[in-house]
Amino acid sequence: MSDRFDVVVIGGGPAGYPAAIRAAQNKLTVACIDEWRNTDGSHAFGGTCLNAGCIPSKALLESSELYHRAREEFAVHGIALTGVALDLAAMQRRRAAIVKTMTGGINALFKSGGVTPVQGHGRLLPGNRVQVTAADGSQRILQAAQVVLASGSVPVRLRSVPHDGRRIVDSWNALEFDAVPARLGVIGAGVIGLELGSVWRRLGSEVTILEATEQFLPIADQAIAREALRHFKKQGLDLRLGAKVASAAVAGEVVDLRYTDARGEHSLQVDKLVVAVGRRPFTDDLLAEGTGVQVDARGFIEVDEHCRTAAANVWAVGDVVRGPMLAHRGKEEGVMVADLIAGRYGEVNYRTIPSVIYTSPEIAWVGQTEEQVKASGRPYKVGTFPFAASGRARAMEAAQGMAKVIAAADDDEVLGVHVIGPMAGELIGEAMLAMEYSASTEDIQRTIHAHPTLSEAIHEAALAVDKKAIDAINR
Ligand code: FAD
Ligand code: AMP
Predict the structure, then answer these.
(1) 475 has a pLDDT exceeding 90
(2) Measured in whole angstroms, how far is the alpha carbon of residue 65 from the centre of its chain?
(3) Predicted confidence (pLDDT) at residue 412 exceeds the cutoff of 80
(4) Which of 9, 45, 54 best tests ligand 1's pocket when mutated (most atoms within 8 Å of CB)?
(5) Which residue in 231, 328, 451, 459 is the catalytic one?
(6) Whole-prediction pTM
């Protein structure tokens, strides 16, 4: 194999592997280096997203939701089930099989696309040379005209809550439990904490989520966050806000944890404790002295809006750079960089990056929250539509939540769309396209939406912005 490439990508997650594929599509010679190791020691491309994040979590969310619905909801449809039983081993085998298929797919894409896969640890040396250390310790140097750093992120660990991988665990461990914990503690009510808490609650755990901030989901529109909190509490998630965990320790077969809130100090015993307090950029042993790449105080590689680092011909994309830690943001950055390297046009519209929380009800949004629009001082108008008025949502036994459209009062431009309800993550696609084209609410109002579909909720919310909703009372 040649050791000279037009492009060397370090990291084969959802930011790195699309960069490699697009670079190859652009007729450049490309190598993608990745060091991911699964718990059984095997290598797989796909990074956190495919191996320990987006994909396995969605597999378990889907399975656990079906189990929950079979037990709680099917009777409402007139379907009587007896003997519904959980086979967690089978559920976990399915999760693992989906991950294996998806990660294997990347190898196939590399093969057909002409990307050279390299397993091992990549380290950038001065002069655009990349040192690769394989699992057996052997080393080689690749020479690259351009380097893309896509080394991703790892879970934040709390010093006073020592990880042991068995009782005190991270999100990856919590996706691979082989038994349902009777009592599960989760530190952090962010996206990952809520999704994992939901999975194990549906499968039977008593789940307590401790969140340091008083405000629930500060990143979301607060009308949506309030609605979500109400549903999560109703589902039995014991969500304690303003509860800051001070320490935790394993004592025999349980975890003893201490936290403080406005009322003072408390203790809690759980069987397993998931630390889901965020992720940090991963740059361990990535940059040798003298590369010229700058890292900020929080550990992120510094880049401009086109993901150029301070070093010539070195780029960085995905979780290792500023911005929301989301797979699709990394993917778009990877593709943009590969196009810019080839002398083509490339841009990421950071204003239209969607967020999705795959709980039930699902939460999704794009653009600004009402709080952000209000703070900007721009006059605005709001329209909402409850899924309780959606025939399709009723038929699905999922008539919870709402769609909310926020638009500029002056020129009617859509500024933000927020959905809590069935298939919110799919529904938000329409809003992303609308905002990408700088649509007005009138554009959405005049677009025909099939009946009866969930998408009518966005249509009606857009109509409600001008008090023209047909299927709901205009307020
Ligand atoms: P990563 O996916 O972390 O990949 C980096 C890769 O580079 C890894 O394989 C790593 O081993 C490798 N690497 C690092 N350093 C080196 C080196 N020096 N040499 C060689 N290889 C190296 N995001 C969503 O958009 N939607 C979701 O539903 C979602 N769900 C999530 C659920 C969970 C439980 C978690 C933990 C995360 C979730 N995320 C989700 C976030 C998403 O996984 C990340 O945003 C995404 O994986 C970041 O992609 P990346 O390519 O930048 O980094
Ligand atoms: P995210 O960054 O979205 O994954 O969310 C992580 C959440 O963990 C944030 O909402 C933090 O406020 C919360 N958090 C961080 N440290 C603690 C702690 N010691 N106790 C409770 N919650 C915490």
Answers:
(1) no
(2) 19
(3) yes
(4) 54
(5) 451
(6) 0.97
